Each structure stands twice: as structure tokens, then as C-alpha cells.
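Entry 14. Ran structure prediction on the chain below.
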Amino acid sequence: MNPDLFPIDESLSPRLAWMRKHGVVIIHLEPDPDAYDGGSYKQWKAYVPDHPDRFVPGFGDSGSDGEDQALENFAMFNNIPLWYQE
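Output, C-alpha cells:
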């Protein structure tokens, strides 16, 4: 679709706006078969790729809320209020 047909301002969800504001990205991690012990493994990682040494990454489990868990851990470790706390 041609963006000039219907010019609309970009509208981000509060979570995506928070991620963009802080430069946070989330990636999906493949399990390491050598490190997997039969329990849950950390499947999601939230971090700031432009400043890997400045911010502590957050990790989330393999469950359905793993992405949010990774973001919450990232925010907690780095003393940053979450999108619903600002």
C-alpha cells in the first residue's frame, strides 16, 4: 500500500514506545542442548544492543509471558520504570 494515500501518524503501543525510548530489543534464544537440564530455560533476552556494557540484560522463561518477563527483569536490573509505571 502506498503510504501517501492515507497519511497517518505512527501510533505505538505503550510497551513499544517504552522499548524505543530506551533502545531495548528482545530476541528469541535457541536452547543450548549442552546446558539444558530438563527444566525451563531462558528463551527471551531484553537488552540494549548499542550499549551492551552499560545495561544488564533481562531474561525470560520459555512460557507465554517470557517476553514481558525479560522486559520486567531488564527494567528491574537497570532501575528503569516500566511503561505502565511512568
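Strands lie at 25-28, 42-47, 58-61. Will compare against last week's run tomorrow.
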